Amino acid sequence: MTIAIPRDAIAARLAEVGYVADRELATALWMMDYLQRPLLLEGEAGVGKTEVAKALAAVHGAELIRMQCYEGLDASSSLYEWNYQRQLIAIKAREFSSESAEAIEAHIFSEHYLLERPLLAAIRRVKPPVLLIDEVDRADEEFEAFLLELLSDFQVTIPEFGTVKAVSIPRVVLTSNGTRELSDALRRRCLYHYLDFPEVDREAAILINRQPGLDAAFALQIARMVAGLRKEELRKTPGVAESLDWAATLAGLGVSDLTAEPEIVHATLIAMLKTREDRVRVTPEVTARLAGKAA
Amino acid sequence: MSAALAEYPVGPGPAMRRRLSGFVRTLRDSGYAAGQAETVDAARIIACPLADRPERLREALKALFATSRAEAERFDEVFDAFWRGRGARTATRTATSGGAEGADRRFGAGPGGGDVSAPEPLRAPAPEGVEGEGRGRERGASTFDSISKKDFAKLTGESERAAAHELAERLARAMRARLTRRERARAKGRRLDLRATIRRSVARGGEPIDLKFRQRKSKPLRLVALLDASGSMELYVSVFTRFLHAISQTFRQSEAYLFHTRLAHVSAALREPHPPRALDRLSLMAAGVGGGTKIGDCLAEFNRAHAKRALNSRSCVMIFSDGYDTGEPERLAAAMRDLRRRCRRIVWLDPLTGREGFQPIARGLLAAMPYIDLFAPAHDLASLAALEPYLARL
Question: What's the pTM?
């Protein structure tokens, strides 16, 4: 069993690798290790779900194995596949040799011809990796059931090869955007954390953490402005990545006060507003109002 | 449980275990799906010195027991009520028992809120269409003629109403069965799957004898129902609710909303398998009926808050409404236009079409008409059944 790191230590170490976590998330990450259960993260696009897994891998110095889910994802592209082309070549090459059929068969269904896909890779590493199963709601329901089986047994049976048991239990993070309701069984198997947009203080801390040299007071201004923007009825609510982009843009242009340069502030909002409707909705007046409130 | 706890020398004492199982019971009463595995893990957390402070314990147990955002949000309340003694159980109990009366009144459940059991004449024929052939419906329809062709508003007496409810439920289930069968019959591929064919040929020494095909998997139809629960729909709401209940039970990817002056997401209530209990929960959510219908506002609210999650390119939106709108027609038209862009089909089901001399002249209906793909009657069971071929073609 891996040694669980206490919650506060996890938060501190996450901050070191550039992720500012709130208390509940730190608790959930600690429990992941303690109970050896996967963690299901839900939240809107752009709140930093994927970042959690990356940061977790950095904290433990572990490899991050990422599996992006999509509709039609099946076992052969997620678990393993035989390298058929090479198998065929091997068969053809041995056509006139004196080897027995059994020997050829044993040869072509050996480790050498096995293509590892993310799920198999994750359970065959000596040092437990972080397995990120991204946007699990995009995969089909059948795949979800298959995943559930893997997550409870941590072993895989390959008919031609035998059963592969997990060498080490990976830390599993699943993310979901809520495009489809996940099954109760999967939800119950996992620890659950709902990731919200960060509150103003935490967002400012994230900005400072990722953008060294950013003035603390200005970071707070930006965070307040972003929070104001998120309250507007936008089609696409800007995420943390967007606010980081925007802060970098403003810093690059030498802006240090949102109210000082209204035109630049409004023009650079293209880093935040990514549909035409939102762009039209946030007029220069709206920008000025929000900036005034944030300052 | 004891086996798992044995690894932890400082496991919780018997008093604490009793307290914990009490907490798990409270959680279950409050709708959390807390199983044995979770209880064992909760005991491990309590035993862990790292979770010594109450707020840490709360956070930890929240991550363990909550399985959705809504559950996570109300967890603190349940936790505090139990561990800090504020009587959560009494609170949940009163809420449900209070709801039962409401359900009787609004949704016309059986007397005393008990099971709505089918009366004798309906028991005899097989559940129509569930395991029958394609023609089952016609046969069934003639058997059930008396009720299936009767306007919902003219159903008299408990037994007739209960029979209609039961039929509505069967109808929804039968729809599902037929829709899936139709998909299976088309399971012949078009494109050759070269990779899989080569993979198969390995067993034949490299000769591609077994050909493998690919076919684009047809996504299951997603039904999104929006039910008008305003005063003018009163006579129809109960039977439509029952119909939606069965749809929610059988179509996994379905969502249901109720609207009058505001919009309520009721899918969770409808997933409750026991019909009377589902109606209980629904009636609580539908509280505050009266004061006109704001169809436009409610649809706009749906577009803003729910559409992104609930709709995809395979979605069929069913609106059950008589179109009597007290809001601005322009607002309704704008909301319908927006909705039209986001889904595959909009079906508008109007229960008033069964009335003599019916003309689609309700203000809201006229505003919405340009964006409706199918305007269909929904005043009796036969008209609901007629929907199925349309849905199957989607």
Answer: 0.64
